[in-house]
Specification:
70% helix; mainly alpha
């Protein structure tokens, strides 16, 4: 996915301010990465998984 953005950014005729800003501002770059690859609802999924955790042995067995 990044190849198309890099190609447009490196093109001397690049007129897309979103692409230019993405590569000039690290925070915006991280946001774009998260938008592209983040799992929808990830915090809620993690919270449910934690709530389902159960201790199945005695504490001594874990040591």
């Amino acid at each position: 996915w990044i190849t198309s953005y890099l190609t447009k950014y490196m093109d001397s005729d690049n007129q897309d301010p979103k692409i230019t800003q993405m590569f000039k501002d690290y925070a915006k770059f991280k946001d774009k990465i998260r938008q592209t690859f983040a799992v929808p609802g990830e915090p809620a999924i993690a919270e449910r998984a934690i709530q389902r955790l159960r201790q199945t042995k005695s504490a001594g067995d874990y040591a």
